[in-house]
Design goal:
mainly alpha; 16 helices; 73% helix
Length: 356
């Protein structure tokens, strides 16, 4: 369960708030079809990662490369993976700060909010994979009630907005697959989480369940926004899932979106926390160290200091997300097939040599 929630948590924090708008800009109300395509591609790549890691079940991706290619390959992969996950976590964390500043604390400096996020993040991430897994499971149960509130908006929704299907052909849907693929990024963490699994025989089922859970949440939020807003209106909002909540009012609470955004931050934290740990874990593997706490402290300090010199904005983070998306598509979607082919050929040639 913790493995499932770790993978799903990383995925959900990536595109939960902005994915409906991005899909609507490219494919209109047919954007939900791109989510299905992204799910199929992500699941195939996820299963390929599991098949690759079965070749060396007691080690990570770096150990596998060290065994099959050489020590230099493991070191290079660890360095590149550390940089990728560090940039990934920095982008998501800064994006969360921008969300909080725009919706709740507009006059609070960025570095102050980053400090407030960095301190509890360090306290959780220093506990390692098992603590992160328990935290991801806890956040899932705490936020399980949130999707049901979106059902209240269906009273003022118009399902005719969804018709006809393929109104602009297939090309816009294919263009919308790119942000959908980015939204499913996170399953590549299985490269490093696999050796920590106690029941490795269920790794394939677990990663399928994680992708399915992410699919259901994305479909629920995207369809709700599409039927609530007209096809032209939805693109006017940066975070349509939050704007939907602004229309709901109860006697006991006036601004429901503020409460929801607080829980959204918890959901997004299940993205940057494991990714920060994986970045530090990769660097420790390079130097053969096990204690990651000191390096984690330096990482958090660099995060806070960097904001003083790099003034983050939504436009800047959009560009960073584009870079992360391109790197993630290669690392998560393409590299598993390349690795599987290489490992398969390597083992086949070795068996032939033994037979000869």
């Amino acid at each position: 369960m913790q493995y499932i929630f770790l993978i799903a948590g990383i995925q959900l924090g990536v595109g939960l708030l902005q994915l409906p708008r991005e899909l609507a800009e490219l494919a209109g109300t047919d954007g939900w079809i791109a989510i299905l395509i992204g799910f199929v591609i992500a699941t195939c790549s996820s299963l390929m990662i599991v098949q690759v890691m079965k070749r060396y079940p007691d080690g990570t991706l770096f150990d596998l490369l060290k065994r099959y290619v050489g020590k230099w390959a493991g070191q290079a992969a660890a360095l590149l993976t550390a940089l990728y996950f560090a940039f990934f976590s920095y982008t998501i964390m800064v994006r969360a700060v921008l969300f909080v500043r725009s919706w709740i604390l507009p006059k609070t400096p960025d570095f102050v909010m980053l400090i407030l996020l960095a301190i509890p993040s360090y306290l959780i991430a220093r506990g390692g994979v098992r603590v992160l897994g328990r935290y991801a499971e806890l956040v899932f149960y705490i936020t399980l009630w949130m999707p049901f509130f979106y059902l209240l908006s269906l009273r003022e929704s118009n399902w005719l907005y969804m018709l006809p299907l393929f109104k602009d052909g297939l090309q816009p849907i294919l263009l919308a697959v790119k942000p959908a693929l980015f939204a499913f990024l996170g399953f590549e963490a299985a490269f490093l989480f696999y050796p920590f699994l106690k029941s490795k025989q269920y790794a394939s089922q677990g990663i399928i369940v994680a992708n399915t859970l992410t699919l259901l949440v994305y479909l629920h939020v995207t369809l709700t926004c599409n039927v609530f807003y007209s096809p032209d209106t939805i693109t006017h909002f940066n975070e349509p899932p939050v704007n939907v909540l602004k229309t709901m009012e109860f006697r006991f609470i006036e601004r429901l979106e503020i409460v929801f955004l607080s829980f959204f931050i918890m959901t997004i934290s299940t993205t940057w926390l494991p990714v920060i740990y994986l970045s530090v874990f990769s660097i420790n593997w390079m130097f053969g160290k096990e204690d990651h706490r000191k390096l984690l402290q330096w990482f958090m300090l660099l995060l806070v200091v960097s904001v003083l010199f790099i003034k983050p904005t939504f436009n800047k983070t959009d560009k960073w997300i584009e870079i992360v998306s391109l790197i993630g598509i290669f690392f998560g979607y393409l590299s598993p097939y390349v690795l599987w082919l290489y490992v398969w050929l390597h083992d086949r040639l070795r068996w032939r040599r033994r037979g000869a």
